[in-house]
């Protein structure tokens, strides 16, 4: 396939994903969406699944339910119907049915501590995370208004051992292009605190110093990470600590704070990357999108 064709398909797929996140609380009409992108509905579905590994309907449902799982904990005064509407469900019954199918419990059970049991099972499923003895109670975030970040990326599915090879490929591109000033970023399209690790979409990104033009930018696709207000958590640790930390952020810190998270995906900016260091330790800042 020609490079320009690959770039066009990738651009359409990323724009579709951005549209879904932006309009996740409304009815998403795929016929109208195909008209916006000036492609057939069949072609739209095809390139989206080729890029993201699952179809548009599955993606919309997954994002809505991940959002609901967080709102149920942070919007404690909102009833189930209100949460359902905020996540794009017009009927409470269909929301409860979808939620129970996804999390094996009702929204009410989730609010009564079921969230911690579910996320703990995800930690147990990860040998690295289950062996972590890290504690995060002393970490206090700062709050920053972040700009849009443009980055090159490689998409990876799951959190298995082979995720390291994805980051190494990104590193090889950096070294081959003689790029000295760059920043590694993890973009979490799926929340690993509530999503089975094998189903998580993880995006390995690298942002270059503005104005760096003398490289071949056709090898890797580009995306942009949405700017906005973020809670910034600075931490260091070893590889297995990250999943446990994200679990703490969503199930301990966020429900006790006065904030709610938005539908923008969180991300991590690294000073030292555990997949690219010999001792598998990291030094990073984790950015969680927040609002009042």
Could you please describe the fold and organization of this structure?
It is built from 10 helices and 9 strands. 29% of the residues are buried. Helix 1 crosses helix 3 (41-52) and helix 7 packs antiparallel against helix 10. The mean pLDDT is 87. The chain has 2 domains: 3-124, Arc Repressor Mutant, subunit A; 142-291, Regulatory factor, effector binding domain (Multidrug-efflux Transporter 1 Regulator Bmrr, Chain A, Alpha-Beta Barrel), CATH 3.20.80. Strands 1, 2, 3, 4, 5, 6, 7, 8 and 9 form a 9-stranded antiparallel beta sheet that branches. It is globular and about 55 Å long. It is α+β, with helices and mostly antiparallel strands.
Tell me about the biggest sheet? 9 strands, antiparallel
Sequence stretches where pLDDT stays below 50 over 5 or more residues: none
The SSE string, one letter per element, is HHHHHHHHEEHEEEEHEEE
| Name of the CATH architecture of the largest domain | Alpha-Beta Barrel
The first-level CATH class name of the largest domain: Alpha Beta
**Strand residue percentage:** 15-25%
Number of strands: 9
CATH H-level superfamily title of the largest domain = Regulatory factor, effector binding domain
Number of helices: 10
CATH topology-level fold name of the largest domain: Multidrug-efflux Transporter 1 Regulator Bmrr, Chain A
- Rg measurement, Å: 19 Å
In round numbers, the mean pLDDT is: 87
| Global structural class | alpha+beta
Distance between the termini: 46 Å
Helix content: 40-55%
Sum up the overall morphology in one term: globular
